[in-house]
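Q: I'm writing up a methods section and want to include an example of the input and output format. Could you take the sequence below and give the corresponding predicted structure tokens, formatted cleanly so I can copy it straight into the document?
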Amino acid sequence: MRKPKSASTCVLGFFLGWASLTALAQGQEVDTTIIKAVPDAAAPVMRPEPAAPSTLEIRDALPRIATIDLTAEPSDVWERIRNGFSMPNLDSDLVTQHQAWYLNRPQQLSRILERSRRYLFHIVQEIEKRGVPTELALLPVVESAYNPMALSPARASGIWQFIPSTGRTFKLEQNWWIDQRRDIVASTAAALEYLQTIYDMHGDWHLALASYNWGENAVARAIERNQSKGLPTDYLSLAMPAETRNYVPKLQALKNIIARPHLFGIALEPVPNRPYFVTVEQPADMDIALAARLAEVPLNEFRALNPAYNRPVASGQSRLVLPADKADVFLANLEAHNKPLVTWQSYTLKRGDKLNAVAQRFGIALARLREINGIGPRTKPVPGQSLLVPARDVLSPQEPLADNSYVIGADEPRARRVTPMQARVESRRSVKVAGGATVRGAGSRVRIAYARPGKTAVKASAYPVKSAWTDKARASKGPIKSAAVKRPRSRS
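A: Here is the clean output for your methods example:
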């Protein structure tokens, strides 16, 4: 226990402090030498106690914070996409709903991502050139499930789903031979240019995406309405159609899954960070089937890389898209090829010509002749109309289909055009096909689009379908000739 200081020590300390303050006030230097007060005779001398030995506490080193080296080139395109995520996150119940929708369908999500492997590297390259967020590489999943042959009820086509008028605005050629809305290279450049334009208009990526889906003028009007009412003008605050309201949440849900696939139990197959395809100059018009053989790639793969062609002849473009490791093979085989590059010719219909007679003359099935020339079942050819027909007498039965379809997946139907009325009718009807399946579940086994009331379901049932019939009632009708079926009048 320490004893209190003596009175003399306290008085001395007071005077020393007063003297120092007086000197400072007069601008004089103060002697800072410590003056020891002489202890009182009666006061005992205090000896300092020895200090207790100090203890050194050793703690574990703090864990290092994980860093991302953006200067190192990733080996996986998915990692490259993650590194470029820069859109603000959207937090809403709709994001959670769509995230659950994708996670509850892992096989469907896997098929979509597998289709995207052909195109991802090119799309990410184009995105990084423009300095826009890499979330845009996931937009074709929302738009078309990465199916270049997708066609919407509004006639939007391709992986970026351009409607005809917007496609023409961005110089995507659409004619009898090609539709560049389906061309991977041309449509990607046009889509990113369009997205940049509407982002510059709004200064907000969520509003830019809403404009891409709904239209920039519609979004601008919605913003003006909110401004006039003194309401916020962000994406979540605007009144918009249900499709647009769900559009950005779908993209955000995909972003969440791709950002942390392991967290959701998704096995994301790596995509090599190198070009999947290259373009080569097309020397002349040639059969698509021949081009695929010269490149030594399956026809389905060739069509997946060149989906813009409407006919069995590659015409109307100056380049072909080939797998990166097949370009040299194609050029070498093309140089060695000494036969005609085109086995099709043009035939002009004369007065009195019937399609079935023309088909027999050139040794081609009538249905195939219609497919090749884009002649619908209700279209009546007229004299003077040019048709594409085989240049040889008979087509081999091993020849591929002459339209531009290709196998999308073992259990997915071919993309087709459906009007809103047809969609409503189809949702209420099931048509029996081989094996007891229905039209809505038979895309993998029967090439059938739909069956409207009064029209025979080809390859599905041999009787006209009436919307009020049940499966049991249809079965009791028995087969009738399809020629006797009368088509209903169109409402359009």
